[in-house]
Amino acid sequence: MCQPPSCFDGVQNGDETDVDCGGSCGATCKFANPQQKCKVPGDCVSGVCSVSAPVPGTGGNGTGGTGGSNIDGGSSTGGAVGSVDGGIDSGASAQLMCQPCASDSDCVQTSLQCGVNDTWLWILGNTMCSGSICTSCPILTADVSNYCGIVQECDFNAALGCDLNSPKCVPHCIDRQSDYDESGVDCGGKDCPGCSIGQGCNGDSDCSSGLGCSTLRNSPTLYTCVDSCLDGHIDGDETDIDCGGTKCTARCSQGQGCKALSDCQPGMYCDGVYFCTFGGGG
Fold first, then answer.
1. Distance of CA 38 to CAs 97, 107, 132, 177, Å?
2. What's the pLDDT tens digit per position in 133-148?
3. Which positions ≥6 away from 168 have C-beta within 8 Å?
4. Which pLDDT does position 158 carry in this prediction?
5. Which residues lie across from 133 on neighbouring strands?
6. Which of 35, 181, 205, 213 lies at a C-alpha separation of 20 to 30 Å from 5?
7. Are the CB atoms for 240 and 270 separated by under 8 Å?
């Protein structure tokens, strides 16, 4: 009975690149005993697929002439000259074969390679040559002053970040990027100093003293630190939104909150329910 192709049927079929390996069978083709064919590095156990020169001894032997014998491809008595010592067949076509890796450069790399003395924390997916086979770079937990990669974080539990200018692991509040719970670059969150004007924020606590986190909708300043008297909500000692109190120069208009006459615009007074209004009173 005919059976569908499989990776265990002892023949090359389907999209296999050699017998029961490569293609949908995955990285299962060998680089030796026997060396098997491939199309891409992902077909090979070693992760290396490259052109292999025809192996000496596999070239076709010459055909002995009539009446003579042909030994080891040598010339026969009275006949044409065959190939010498089973030499390389010049007509053989190049074939992609699985090969052992010899160095890290034979393996799949990004712009960075595995690190020196196991101190680098590199991009996941990078590989190194180990025992003739390309294997993943070790993913390490980098401590303070250890080198770090571009994408990986350093030891998260120790609140470390990767300073891309070093590149070394440093406390995250001085790593020159926004990470952990920071709202801006090295500012905001529970660990870092407050952010300056223009830096990102999630609330007033992310901003430096005297600044607030803008909640002004449809404004380019939304969720950035601005002067607290321009942030679109009541904070500090303001008696209403961005007016009143001792810091803001803007006085509150009719219907806005107040605590004293000085919180209201000229011509108004702070009534008994603490709203600015026109009329009598102080």
1. 5, 15, 17, 43
2. 888 765 544 555 566 7
3. 145, 146, 147, 148, 162
4. 77
5. 130
6. 35
7. no
DSSP annotation string for 33-91: SSB-B-SSGGGBSSS-EEEEPPPTT-SPPPPPPTT----TT-PPTTS----GGG---TT
Q: Nearest Cα to 249, choosing from 229, 233, 268, 267?
A: 229
Centroid of chain to Cα 174: 21
Q: Tell me how far the alpha carbon of residue 202 is from its chain's centroid.
A: 26
3-state secondary structure (DSSP) of residue 42: helix
* Distance in angstroms (rounded) separating the CA atoms of residues 176 and 194: 15
Q: Scan for tokens 């924390």, then name that residue.
A: 121
Which two structure tokens, joined as six digits, stand for 25? Answer: 């069978």
Residue appearing with tokens 């690149």: 17
Domain boundaries, the chain: 1-51+95-100, 103-177, 181-233, 236-282
Please, are residues 231 and 241 in contact by the beta-carbon 8 Å criterion?
no
Six-digit token string for 133: 């086979």
Check: CB of residue 60 under 8 Å from CB of residue 88: no
Tens of pLDDT, residue by residue over 215-239, are 999 999 999 999 999 999 999 999 9
Residue at token pair 């890796």: 101
Q: Evaluate whether 201 touches 223 at the Cβ level (below 8 Å).
A: yes
- List, as one string, the DSSP characters of 255-276: TSB-SSGGGBPTTEEE-TTSBE
- pTM recorded for the entire structure: 0.49
